[in-house]
Amino acid sequence: MMLLDSDFMEYDAKTKLKQIIDVLDQLSDDSSVPRNIRRGATEAKGRLNQDGEAMDVRVAGAIGKLDDLANDPNIPMHGRTVIYRIISELENLLKTLNG
User: Fold this and answer.
1) What top-level class would CATH report for the domain 5-98?
2) For residues 32 and 75, what is the distance between their CA atoms, to the nearest angstrom?
3) Could you give the CA distance from residue 37 to residue 16 in angstroms, rounded to a whole number?
4) pLDDT level of residue 72 (50, 70, 90 thresholds)
5) Would you kindly state where each structural domain of the chain is located, as residue ranges?
6) Mean pLDDT of the region 10-28
7) First-to-last C-alpha distance (Å) of the chain
């Protein structure tokens, strides 16, 4: 079966989203990160997994939540770095979806 360009983009977006969700899972399980940050990572993951909303709306909502977490003064540097990387990947995904 040959994939059309739109099929490939959809598959690629779903694959990228799964990778991002896996990193959010790791962050929410990291005991060196404060509980409110772990809870926020779980909330962002839940937002990305919400059915019934357009993918770009879910991604934008998760970016907003993660941006709030990145600005928390209690987050350790490695946690902030992971969040910034996730935000960057989500923004790239958003460009792919809207492009």
Assistant:
1) mainly alpha
2) 9
3) 22
4) very high
5) 5-98
6) 88
7) 25
